[in-house]
Design a protein that fits this description.
Helices cover about 60% and strands about 20% of the residues. It is α+β, with helices and mostly antiparallel strands. It has a four-stranded antiparallel sheet with strand order 1-2-4-3, covered by helices on one side. Strand 3 (about 135-145) and strand 4 form a beta hairpin. Helix 2 (about 65-80) crosses helix 5.
Length: about 180
């Protein structure tokens, strides 16, 4: 064998060895490319499923908001089921006045209470205001006050208060006794 043939033979062996060493690298690159594409397809399929689930769950996601709205409506209905309580409270108030208070007039509608009374003194007026608040009416206030000539310190007052169905309902509920 001549030197050029040996050189060529060595070159072919080196080339074959180089090609053989690149073969596992090419196989690894091909597998990496295959797995990357496979994972990308799986991720795409999962994203589509996630979008479908989100679309299906969207109405369910509003259930919390819907439940809260229904609870508010139920509370309103519970309060409105007792509309006569404001009238009952006004009648009780008119029949159970504090000492030193004489009822002159009582007017109530579904929203307001107006009460005219003659009070013996400032303490009787304060007791009347307190009793109106305790009866379930909100924001009791003296609208007008004038001196009554029948006795020293006596005054004639007109009270105005807002009928509060929620407070009437709370007062109508039985109280829990704690030991």
């Amino acid at each position: 064998m001549s030197a050029s043939a040996r050189q060529r033979s060595t070159l072919l062996v080196a080339l074959a060895a180089f090609a053989a060493s690149l073969l596992p690298l090419a196989a690894a690159a091909a597998y990496y490319h295959y797995r990357t594409n496979q994972i990308a397809r799986e991720v795409g399929a999962l994203e589509k499923q996630l979008i479908e689930l989100d679309q299906r769950l969207e109405p369910i996601g509003n259930l919390d908001q819907l439940r809260n709205q229904m609870l508010v409506r139920k509370q309103i209905v519970d309060v409105l089921e007792l509309p006569q309580n404001g009238f009952d409270a006004a009648i009780r108030l008119g029949t159970q006045l504090p000492a030193g208070v004489q009822l002159l007039g009582l007017d109530i509608d579904e929203k307001r209470l107006s009460l005219q009374a003659r009070c013996a003194d400032q303490a009787a007026t304060a007791a009347l205001l307190r009793q109106v608040g305790d009866a379930g009416f909100s924001e009791p206030a003296i609208v007008s006050r004038s001196a009554d000539g029948t006795a020293t310190g006596a005054e004639q007052v007109t009270l105005d208060a807002r009928a509060d169905p929620a407070r009437f309902a709370a007062l109508a509920q039985p109280r829990q006794v704690t030991p």
